[in-house]
Design brief:
CATH architecture of the largest domain: 3-Layer(aba) Sandwich
CATH topology of the largest domain: Rossmann fold
Radius of gyration: 21 Å
CATH superfamily of the largest domain: NAD(P)-binding Rossmann-like Domain
Largest sheet: 5 strands, parallel
Distance between the termini: 43 Å
Number of strands: 10
Number of domains: 2
Length: about 260
């Protein structure tokens, strides 16, 4: 029997009547569903208020991102819950459950960059692709995986000048073939990273090590190389982020970090 949450019907734009299937499902409270479920399928990882629902006879299937979340890791261990993280499921194609989300995240990063470099979000008032006679924004993508490739693809579509850094020679060759000269694809090293950071209008962090915290590719000292009005977006923030967060005098508004 499938149990569903009446509290969430507005969020998914489905009325309770659409969720009633005779003999197969019925609506119960959140507490009833969680306390009686043997398999709990979610999208977002459990938050602190939900730790009390974890128990030894529960199987949890959701995105977890435990590498950057010690409290959740300890809560799962203490409860003895069997947890399967979407982002670590692998098959012959790679990471089939993480890839679609990464594709969306990469494209949204480019969309967010275009929004935040515009003046309405406190940015420098630039167009990502600029206009005839004016140079386009320089977009630096750190990490050439699914997120980075999708971010670069959309930024190129908006006619930005794009550079991708990666440490895998094999992946660099693949990206070089895919982008066919439309984007600069470079081997990431300290000197190249420093040079590209100093010239970038937008930096998109897209480093992923499956099941582990993202490598700290950009140090806090290297962030000082960024222009004062440059934009930094870390897509891998839920895995620990590939850059050390800058110390800001006030909350970021899009002109420094997002």
């Amino acid at each position: 029997m499938t149990r569903t949450r009446s509290e969430d019907t507005q969020g998914i734009r489905v009325s309770p009547d659409h969720m009633r299937v005779p003999g197969q499902a019925h609506l119960v409270s959140q507490a009833e569903a969680r306390n009686s479920a043997e398999l709990l399928v979610k999208v977002k990882e459990p938050v602190a208020a939900e730790y009390g629902f974890l128990r030894p006879d529960l199987v949890l299937f959701t995105y977890l991102h435990l590498a950057a979340d010690r409290p959740l890791t300890e809560a799962l261990l203490d409860a003895g819950t069997l947890a399967v993280a979407y982002e670590t499921v692998q098959d012959e194609s790679g990471l089939p459950l993480l890839t679609p989300m990464s594709e969306i995240a990469g494209r949204l990063a480019a969309h967010a960059a275009a929004t935040h470099v515009a003046g309405n979000s406190g940015g420098p008032g630039l167009l990502l692709g600029s206009t005839p006679g004016v140079a386009p924004c320089r977009v630096l993508v750190i990490g050439g995986g699914v997120v980075g490739a999708q971010a670069a693809l959309l930024a190129l579509g908006m006619q930005a000048e794009v550079t991708i850094l990666d440490m895998s020679a094999r992946r660099i060759r693949q990206l070089d073939t895919v982008f066919a000269g439309r984007a600069r694809v470079l081997m990431s090293d300290v000197a190249t990273l420093a040079s590209e950071l100093s010239q970038a209008d937008v930096v998109i962090g897209a480093v992923l090590v499956p099941g582990r915290a993202a490598s700290k590719v950009v140090t806090r000292e290297q962030l000082r190389l960024l222009r004062p009005d440059a934009l930094l977006l870390d897509v891998a923030i839920d895995q620990g982020a590939p850059s050390k967060p800058p110390v800001l005098p006030r909350p970021p508004t899009g002109s420094r970090a997002a």
